[in-house]
Amino acid sequence: MKRKNASIPREEPESQNKISRRTMLKFAVSGSLGGLAAEPLLLSSAAQAQTLPPAGLAQDMATAANAFLNSLNAKARGKAAFVFSNSERFRWHWTTPDGFSRNGLPLNEMSAEQKTLALSLLRSGSSKSGAKKALEIMALQTELKSDPEDYYVSIFGTPGGAAPWGWRFEGHHLSRQFTVVAGKVAVTPFFLGAWPTQTAAGARAMPREEDAARELIQALEGSARETALFQAASLTAHVTGNDAKVRPPEPVGILYSELKDAQRSLVMELIRTYLDVLPETLAKAGLERITVAGVDKIRFGWAGSLEPRQPHYYRLQGPTFLLEFDNSRNSGTHIHSVWRDYDQDFGYHLL
Fold it and tell me: How far is CA 55 from CA 46, 51, 60, 61, 133, in A?
């Protein structure tokens, strides 16, 4: 029987499971991950030979998902696989698995080859920089003395079949989910977070997501800043939570059309920074959707301190999307950020 949660607790910093640094380093790809890890992922010879055919994004995902499922025994497959109609598909979160129990198969219950195949699936739905960012977020768990293998893979429906299917890769501060219908792919909502925002060695998993927004609010002056700064104190959380479907919140902040060119460039940098975690075709489609809806209608709003390492929150809100970034916890060193699409979350528009 799958686990259920009656309520969603607040994320707590005390969720600490000791794990060795050696285990964490398994998650680094060849070379450095922004200083967060510095050894290559350990692959079996069979896994090293695993490649995805250049047959289109949806097919790549199906190939990776089926390779992963076919590597599992019946017990493991029973944890990882769900029917597409299961409400589990809409049950998602960003807090620790201790704080919100996950369903699916965790990396720490997989063999080395199965982990490799699970990460191949993650890469099939990510750009190169997006996969790197995901591994950086996972590697940060060692800073909290938590398990960087406590991330869960869930497959919904039959990958590559005629019927809709989907998949999810999720754990603390990382939630990526995909819905595939007739070769079309939906990628929202997606969540990226980081704690700490900077390690003792100076490494950062999400630098421009934080810095570009601060540069923007600090570049505004007079009435423009007054309009953008909609609240003196930071929010304590992003307002959309983990709802399965969201509506546009009350508009706050300054319109893109009221910004100067350099300030507009920072807005577009933020948008591209988030979309760039996606495969190129999906990132381009996402940007085109925003452009067609009207970039002049996007609003930038800020709440909280303008200084680094102080609690703050910002949002970018357009006709079709909402980006929320909250850094209110742990004295402004704990990022939660989420991208929502009012019509396309969980592939509602495809079904």
Answer: 21, 12, 6, 10, 25
